[in-house]
Amino acid sequence: MMDVQQIKPIHLDVLQEVGNIGAGNAATALSQLLNQKIDLNVPSVRIIDFQEMQSLAGGEEKVVAATFLRVSGEAPGSMFLILQKEEAEELAYSLTGNKVNIIDDSFDELAASALNEMGNILAGAYLSALSDFTSIQMQPSVPSLAIDMAGAIISAGLIEISQVGDYAIVIDTLMGETDDTSSTPATGQFFLLPDPDAFERIFQSLGVDWS
Amino acid sequence: MTKIEQGQIIKVGMADWKIVEPPDTIRTSGLGSCIGAVLYDETKQIAALAHVMLPDSTMAKSQDANRAKFADTALEDVLEMLNKKGCSNSRLKAKIAGGAQMFSYSSGNEMMRIGPRNTEAVKEILSHYRIKVIAEDTGGNKGRTIEFNPVEKTLHIRTVNQGESII
Questions:
Q1: Which helix or strand (DSSP H or E) is residue A195 part of?
Q2: Digit-coded pLDDT (tens) for A73-96
């Protein structure tokens, strides 16, 4: 069980490294997919309340394209790949060759399935690196894509956590293209939200005290 | 959304509730599986908006849980406050929105059905207190931002794909 009082700087450092390894692998996958160099920001690990959580991805009402999946196994949790509207449209264009607007009819099945598949590949890459690093079995669910208000989307990942407390620990990593001409610095954002029960297992497998 | 002179918009966050009186309006953003429940007294023009996340406080795995998070405890507290302000349950009416399922999810995890469960719970609790649900916009797979005007008793609902509606 998680108690915010128990969290020490070393725990946040460990989680940051966890995010770094996962997102590093995902960025490599994306870079191969787009044939482009992808940069990673150092993940930020934060303990935040639900109000902050809701506005994490740029604001409660900000329209985002999000791939969501649940992780089951010994260290359960929720995972999101969040793309801002322009980023999602740019990615859909580079994957399908069609220009789309994600909130109108031009966002067709092809674009949706391309984005969902990309979410699937990236989240899979993230989790498999994590699983290798921690030697914890993690089974991702089939990912699901939604385009809607960020607040409404992220609340779907808070259900487990909200039964235990009023805070979530989020491992937040930004990816970006290293292209000088690119005006949008970020191409996507990962959130990993371990369930409260998962922390003990994660820390234990990495040899960090947790009591 | 609504244009009211001098009125402020009272913002209610997730797992929170607040009371509003004219000329102010009350609003909560980004409802997904959560429910926004408005309870209002037509004659007194007082309303409350609760943004609840979970149907039932027995789901809490810790003691000192935030009561505003759960439908049962949140509505209990809201009613107590409204009663204190002189609104009797018999005069109160409700409008509710939210309870969506944002992601289709195959593995049948019961927690993913939380939106519909929230809707059922809120309606059951309201009927227990004999408060009539005048209008609702629940379910589906869309996020909602809602704003209630206690003078006009209208609930404005904004969505990304289906524009705005008023109930």
A1: none
A2: 888 898 998 888 888 888 888 888
Report percent pLDDT > 70 for chain B. 91
Within a domain: B1: no
d(CA A6, CA A8): 6
Is the CB of B30 less than 8 angstroms away from the CB of A51?
Answer: no
| B4 assigned to some structural domain | no
Is B87 catalytic? The answer is no
CATH of domain A4-206: 3.40.1550.10
Helix runs in chain A, H state only: 9-34, 50-54, 85-96, 109-134, 150-155, 159-162, 198-205
Packing angle between helix A9-34 and helix A109-134, nearest 10 degrees? 140
Structural domain span for residue B75: 9-166
- pTM, two decimals, is 0.86
pLDDT at A1 exceeding the cut of 60? no
* A148–chain B Cβ distance below 8 A for any pair: yes
Count of structural domains, chain B: 1
